[in-house]
Amino acid sequence: MLRRVADRLGSSIGYLKESRRISSCSVEKKYSLCYLSTCYPKSILPVGFRQSRNDTKRWATSGSKCRHCESAVLKCAHCGSLVAPRPDTTYFEIMSQNISYDVSESELKKIYRQLQSEFHPDKFSQKNENDRQISEEISSFVNKAYFTLTNPYERGMYLLKLNNHPFNEGDIQLASDFLMRIVESNEELEEISSAEELEQFDKSNEKEIRELSEKVSVAFLAGDFSAAKSDLNKMKYFLSIKNRIRELQRNM
Questions:
Q1: Cα–Cα dist 28/139, whole Å
Q2: How far apart are CA 118 and CA 238, in angstroms?
Q3: Which of 232, 226, 202 is nearest to 214 (CA)?
Q4: What's the CA angle centered on 156, arms 152 and 159, to 5 degrees?
Q5: Which residues form the J domain (predicted)?
Q6: What is the pLDDT of residues 99-158, one digit of tens each?
Q7: 34, 156, 36: which is closest to 92 by C-alpha?
Q8: CATH code, domain with 145
């Protein structure tokens, strides 16, 4: 009996050592793959882990560290207290995304709703002051993360910042023919008088944004930050036109 217990504990320690080894070589150490032996009671597993097919493998989100696996958590499953996100928590991390320009908006929406459902300040209105403040901090952080990652321009700018290549005004000079094209597009938009024409114009503008997004994705994959900046700078103008289209649609 004692031998079986010792073997089981030895297996658990092996899992934890392997976890630390894998964590040390993960991308920028933002995520840590947590191997927890199933001998641990579920009551002490940290909330915020996304369970995989194997019940012993879980991905951490963000926050403090679990005392068993040193992975990040936002809420302690043992006592239920909230923990503020770490200062180095990225928007990608809190939304359980790989650090990449390519994201799934449907998955982001699903995770956003899950996080707000669990950490919205309204759920902690009767809790202690510390939990109320932290819930507001988490909710605000999740809102900013969702807005940034679902916007192709903001997502690109944020990714440039994470890669230590922040965009500065004057970094990229746009060609005069491109700027003239934007002027003409705005003038064309001013002359549109029907919903049908506006819909066609909107489709054309969305195509421009989509094609630029694809170019930005390729640039990031190649590590070409100058190209990413150039295409993001162009995208900004088409997104501005998109906002004008939405305003016209509301007023029609």
A1: 25
A2: 36
A3: 232
A4: 140
A5: 90-162
A6: 999 999 999 999 999 999 988 888 888 778 888 888 899 999 999 999 999 999 999 999
A7: 156
A8: 1.10.287.110
- Exposed, middle or buried by CB within 10 Å (0-12, 13-18, 19+), for 3? exposed
Residue in this structure with the two tokens 């809790």, named with its chain if needed: 127
User: Closest Cα partner for 167 from 238, 209, 100, 228?
Assistant: 228
Q: Which domain holds residue 51?
A: 10-150
**DSSP string across the chain:** -HHHHHHHHHHHHHHHHHHHHHHHTSGGG---EEE--TTS-GGGSPBT-EE-SSTTEEE--SSEE-TTT--EESB-TTT--B-PPPTT--HHHHTT--SSS---HHHHHHHHHHHHHHH-GGGGTTS-HHHHHHHHHHHHHHHHHHHHHHSHHHHHHHHHHHTT----TTS-PPPHHHHHHHHHHHHHHHH--SHHHHHHHHHHHHHHHHHHHHHHHHHHHHT-HHHHHHHHHHHHHHHHHHHHHHHHHHH-
Token pair for 111? 């995770």
In a domain, 144, yes or no: yes
Residue 168 domain-assigned (yes or no) = no
Low-confidence ranges of the chain (pLDDT < 50): 2, 5-6, 9, 11-63, 66-72
